[in-house]
Amino acid sequence: MFKKLLGMNKKFLVVLVLLIGVFLSFSTVKTMAYLDSPGFCQNCHTMKSVYTSFVDSTHAELQCNDCHLPHKSEVGKLFFKGRAGMTHIYFNTLGTEKIPDVIEATARTKGIMNDNCISCHKSTLSNVSHDAKDSCISCHKTVPHGKGFKDDHYNKPPVSGELLENKGGF
C-alpha cells in the first residue's frame, strides 16, 4: 500500500495531506472548544446546579475552563484537563457512591482559579486594596456561580472584626 501511495501524483498527495491536516486541526479545535464549554460540563448530573447558577452570574460569557484550568502553557492545560477528565469519568461511572453532595475545588484547583482571577482582573487589583485576603475566592466564592451558591451567611453584615479575623473570607 505504501508503494501505491508513493506512485501517486505528488501534487495530489500534498493536497490530500493538507486537506487531512486542515480537517484534523479544525475538528480538534472544535472538539476542544466544546469540551471547555459550560454546555459540556453540565452534562454530568452533579453539575446541574453549578451550571444553573453559573448562567445566572456576571461571568456567564466565559467558558468553565477559563477559570478552572491553568493557562501558563498549553501542555500544562491539557495535562490538567486530562487528569481532571479521567477523575470525572471515574466518579461518574465506577465511583458514583463517592460523589459528594457539594463539590469543592481541590487546593490545586483553588490556586489555579486564583491565578486566573488575578490574570483577568489586574486593573481591579491595582485600584482596590486586597492585602488582608488569602485568595480571591475567600471573598468572592459566589461571584462566578451566582444565586445558587450564596449561602445563608452571604447576605448578613459582618460582625465587627470578622473580616480581618477571617482575612475577608467566610
UniProtKB/TrEMBL annotation:
One of its GO terms (biological process) is anaerobic respiration. Pfam families: Cytochrom_NNT. GO terms for molecular function: electron transfer activity; metal ion binding; nitrite reductase (cytochrome, ammonia-forming) activity. The keyword Heme applies. InterPro entries: Cytochrome_c-type_ET, Multihaem_cyt_sf, NapC/NirT_cyt_c_N, NapC/NirT_cytc_sf. It is found in: Cell membrane. The keyword Heme applies. Belongs to the NapC/NirT/NrfH family. This is Cytochrome c nitrite reductase small subunit. It comes from Neobacillus bataviensis LMG 21833.
